[in-house]
Amino acid sequence: MREWEKNIRKTVPYVAGEQPDKPDMVKLNTNECPYPPAPEVEKIIKETEIDKFRLYPDPEASELTEALAQFYQVEQDMIFVGVGSDDVIANAFLTFFNSEKPILFPDITYSFYPVWAELYKIKYKTLALDKNFRIKKEDYYMENGGIIFPNPNAPTGLYEELDVIEDILKHNQKSVVMIDEAYIDFGGESALKFISKYENLLVIQTFSKSRSMAGMRIGFAVGNKNLIRAMKDVKYSINSYTMNRTAILSGMASVKNRDYFDLVRKKIIATREKTKKRLSELGFDFPDSKANFIFATHKALDITDLFEYLRSRNIYVRHWDNPQIKDYIRITIGTEEEMERLIGEIKNYKEAAC
Ligand SMILES: *Cc1c(COP(=O)(O)O)cnc(C)c1O
User: Fold this and answer.
1) CB 253 within 8 A of CB 38
2) Which helix (H) or strand (E) is 69 found in, with range?
3) Residue 172 pLDDT more than 70?
4) 182 C-alpha to ligand 1 centroid (Å)
5) What is the position in ligand 1's atom list of the atom closest to the CA of 150?
6) Could you tell me the strand order of the sheet in which 146-150 lies?
7) CA of 350 to the centre of ligand 1 (A)
8) pLDDT of 208-263, one tens digit each?
9) Which numbered atom of ligand 1 lies nearest the CA of 209?
10) Is the pTM of this model over 0.85?
11) Is the C-beta atom of 33 inside 6 A of ligand 1?
């Protein structure tokens, strides 16, 4: 090993779901939305003045934070925006998780959390879910340097009622508690209503799922203004201009169209419930998802083999090698037609297998 190589920061990165781009594929592997963003977004992009690209964007992304403040009925200084919620959560880890005590999160959850913890050298402890994949709230009563989990959880899709969230908040007033609400718009109730009651609560959401804008990279956190100030101080110590002009304006346009947002969410929820029925009829078991995906297993089918079969049929779902969940596939909710194609191929597979 060369001398300089000894000082390289070694890290095992997060592995994102693959992004194939094949004609006629059904892409149900990374929880994107199958519908386009609000029509006003297209208008913004078409009307973007190229000349403005000479100039730096607004580091405060004010047009976007103002629209979000109105939508969620909070003050503008209670909102932090970033390049996807991955950027926002990474910033929050760096800002708030600086204790000698470990931060806590579930053992089965968004697999990016341990990656950030390792990168930033934050101690962490993972807590087992119960046998039904539920969070055991009592586990979170122990001393800690912070807490984070998604609600609904990923990849299970299970939503914890707000009394569970509040109970965890009540027992944890000495550290920052982050609720990652990437999937909250598909049927759960947001913990945003606790923001003024618990000043150590940070709620994080994204435009990638319910707002159909994964490719534009927009996420945000809402919290007490002192939390947000601290996040901005860290951000301005790394890169003031994380969000580009087009993202700021198209994000704003998306937030302003509440009717379209509600329409898309309702469509996804309806398709999800229909897909649950179809999967049940085919003998699948799954936690009762309140997200835009279903985490399914089958007693009589080899899930890894089914995953490969679907792939060979140009249908992409997500599967992990992690022994705890290797018998599950996570299926993103697509359009009605896409789900019909999935169900059809599962039937073909079953017939051939039996
Ligand atoms: C998708 C997802 C995110 C990150 O999404 P961005 O595209 O970075 O906004 C964060 N947390 C969970 C649990 C997710 O599933």
Assistant:
1) yes
2) helix 62-72
3) yes
4) 6
5) 13
6) 79-82, 219-223, 201-206, 177-180, 146-150, 103-106, 124-127
7) 33
8) 999 999 999 999 999 999 999 999 999 999 999 999 999 999 999 999 999 999 99
9) 1
10) yes
11) no
